[in-house]
Structure formats: structure tokens, C-alpha cells
Design a protein that fits this description.
Layout lengths: L1 E5 L3 H12 L3 E5 L2 H10 L1 E5 L2 E5 L2 E3 L8 E6 L6 H8 L3 E9 L5 H10 L6 E10 L5 E13 L7 H10 L5 E4 L3 H22 L3 H6 L3 H19 L5 H11 L9 H7 L6 H15 L4 H18 L1
Parallel strand pairs: 1-2, 1-6, 2-5, 3-9, 6-7, 9-10
Antiparallel strand pairs: 3-4, 8-9
The structure holds NADPH dihydro-nicotinamide-adenine-dinucleotide phosphate and ketopantoate.
């Protein structure tokens, strides 16, 4: 099966690189500058176990002609609209599109652009980043890629995809509840992202600060109320476990949004926080903490554009 990994950044470089190393037929859709770097230096992946290097197969949007069996979509949410037009020639009648983006609304956008049946649900759990040379760093042992049909069916095509992704050097899991898992991932990520960006420190630092635990609990309560209004069917232990995990004073947890912010890079403020604020507004919820986090990141975005 031919796999097109759209984007060769932190997540695309890691999961796509691992798949290529495991012998799968992987091509990366890249822009010119990233392509030049990868041609010159290869795709270097630093993991807690050591460094590996793959010579990746690359394609530019202008060269895309054939369709692929699987498209793994690994761009940031703010690049989605543009990139969908660019990888459109790769999408045929049988192509599956697996997005790893944070948030929920990208799924609807992919379905609108390519048809409901083309997209499956997906998410990844990893702490990955690119360094100044464009090399991929997997910063912790976390390496999960989770996917499933939106309606939970164990279809022939999803089982085939599962076979393709298993035993490729990361933790791959087929989920029968992927939409629910995506909501829960967003709940967690938006909470950690909003809290760490607003407070400018990791979760342990916020937990140890005066008023920190109460702030964390109140923030998570707001996020949970919003995602429930958005369609998430709440599992009660999730909120309690999230608050417990996020108030651990020893936690060094941050998020990709926090890492991007500390490096002065664009962040997914709209996709991770703005979309929550929109749901809250529509549902008439009072969510001052989430709103404050969104406003804060919107000011940050304006500053880095200057
Ligand atoms: N990093 C992490 O630890 C985690 C990230 N996520 C989520 O995964 C998603 C991807 O994040 P991440 O991998 O960190 O992002 P990165 O910024 O590291 O990588 C995104 C890549 O997409 C590429 N890209 C953008 N537009 C195009 C285009 N038109 N054509 C080809 N390539 C393009 C960029 O290439 P270029 O160099 O040309 O700009 C960049 O290399 C996000 O939604 C994020 O929230 C989820 C879990 C963990
Ligand atoms: C949940 C977490 C922190 C790890 O996968 C993440 O998704 C991110 O950093 O974007």
C-alpha cells in the first residue's frame, strides 16, 4: 500500500520516518525548502534510544499525479485549507485520509472537501519537535498513533490499514471509539495548552504556584463543559483523572503549542482554543478562563506577525 505523509515536520517526520524504516512504501509531500534540507541531510530522527536517518522519498505538490492508498495528514491546523488543495490529486476513490491534527473541526473540513467516506478519525500522542536543522526529536517515550472509522465499524479497509501500521516502530492502535478519543484528546490538550501558555510554565510549576490547583481544576471544568456542549459524550472518570494528572506537582508536561510559543512560532490558537470559545458562545456558556487563554494567544499571534 502506498502512503503519502503530508508534511515532514515533528509528527510527520517521526511516524512517516518510522514507517519508511519499517519498509513501508512512504512518500512525503513537502514544500521546496523542507525538501532541500531532507535531500541534503536525510530525515534524522532523535529518540530516547538514539539517532536514526532515513533517505525519504519526496514529492512536491506540483509533481503529484498518482493517487495513494493512505494519506497521513500531519500539518498544523492553520495550514489545512491550503494543503487540502495541494494533496487533492493524491486522493482517489479508495484513498483513506488519516489526520493526526489536534482539535475536532478539521475532520469536518476534510469530509466536506473529499467526501464523508474518505476521512477516518485519528490522533497521535507524542512529544516531538524539530530543531534548528530541521531534525526530528522525539522527546519522551510516548509514540502512539490511534485511528478508526468515524462510526466505529471494524471495516475491511480499517483492518487493512491497521495491518499496515502495526509493527512499524511505534505504538499503533485501532480504536472503535475514535471520535470520543479525539474529544478526550482535545479536552486534555486544550487544558494543558491553555494553562501552560497562559501561565508560562509547565504543569508542575502551575500546580506548585499559589492558587495553581484551583485554577487548573476550574480551567478543566470549563473545557469539559464546552466539549460536552460540542457533542462529546462525557465519561465521568475522564474529568477527574485529567484534573488529578494535571495537578501533579512533579509534572513536566507541556504541549506542542507551548513549545511553539516559547520558540516564537505560529500556534494553533484558533484550532485548539478559538474553536472551544465558539462552541461555548453558541451554547451560551460562561467560560472566562478559556476565553482568557484564547485572547492571550491571539495577542501572541499578532505580536509574532509584526
Ligand atoms: N509535535 C507534537 O508533539 C504533537 C503535535 N500534534 C499535532 O499534530 C499536528 C502537526 O504538528 P507538528 O508535526 O508538531 O507540526 P510541525 O510544524 O512540526 O510540522 C508541520 C509540517 O507541515 C508542513 N507543511 C505545512 N504546509 C504544507 C504544505 N502546503 N505542503 C507540505 N508541507 C506542509 C510544514 O512544512 P514547512 O517546513 O514547509 O513549513 C511542517 O514541516 C498539529 O495539529 C499538532 O497540534 C499532536 C500531538 C503531538
Ligand atoms: C497531548 C500532547 C501534549 C501529547 O500528545 C499533544 O498532543 C501536543 O503536545 O500537541
Amino acid at each position: 500500500m502506498r502512503i503519502l505523509v503530508v508534511g515532514a515536520g515533528a509528527t510527520g517526520g517521526f511516524f512517516g520516518g518510522r514507517l519508511a524504516q519499517a519498509g513501508r512504501d512512504v512518500t512525503f509531500l513537502v514544500r521546496e525548502k523542507r525538501g532541500e534540507t531532507l535531500k541534503k541531510s536525510g530525515l534524522n530522527i532523535h529518540t530516547p534510544q538514539g539517532i536514526t536517518c532515513v533517505q525519504p522519498k519526496l514529492v512536491l505538490a506540483s509533481e503529484l499525479k498518482d493517487t495513494f492508498d493512505v494519506v497521513i495528514l500531519t500539518v498544523k491546523g492553520f495550514s489545512l485549507e491550503a494543503v487540502m488543495e495541494e494533496f487533492a490529486p493524491a486522493v482517489g476513490e479508495q484513498t483513506l485520509i488519516l489526520p493526526v491534527l489536534n482539535g475536532m473541526h478539521h475532520l469536518e473540513k476534510i469530509q466536506q472537501r473529499f467526501g464523508k467516506h474518505r476521512a477516518i478519525g485519528g490522533l497521535c500522542r507524542i512529544n516531538a519537535t524539530l530543531d534548528a536543522e530541521g531534525q526530528v526529536h522525539q522527546m519522551t517515550a510516548l509514540d502512539e498513533l490511534i485511528y478508526g472509522e468515524v462510526d466505529g465499524e471494524r471495516s475491511e479497509r480499517i483492518v487493512k490499514l491497521d495491518d499496515l501500521l502495526q509493527n512499524a516502530g511505534f505504538t499503533a492502535r485501532l480504536s472503535r471509539h475514535i471520535v470520543s478519543e479525539m474529544w478526550e484528546k482535545w479536552l486534555f490538550l486544550a487544558s494543558v495548552g491553555g494553562i501552560t501558555c497562559l501561565m508560562r510554565g509547565n504543569m508542575g510549576q502551575v500546580s506548585r504556584a499559589a492558587g495553581g490547583p484551583a485554577f487548573i481544576s476550574a480551567f478543566v471544568e470549563e473545557v469539559v463543559a464546552i466539549v460536552v456542549a460540542g457533542g462529546y459524550r462525557e465519561r465521568p472518570h475522564v474529568k477527574l483523572n485529567t484534573i488529578k494528572e494535571l495537578t501533579n506537582e512533579n509534572s513536566t508536561q507541556t504541549t506542542s503549542m507551548y513549545r511553539d510559543m516559547t520558540q516564537g512560532l505560529p500556534v494553533e490558537a484558533e484550532q485548539i482554543l478559538g474553536s472551544l470559545v465558539s462552541i461555548a458562545e453558541k451554547a451560551g456558556l460562561n467560560t472566562p478562563l478559556v476565553n482568557a487563554a484564547y485572547t492571550h494567544m491571539s495577542v501572541y499571534q499578532e505580536n509574532i506577525r509584526k
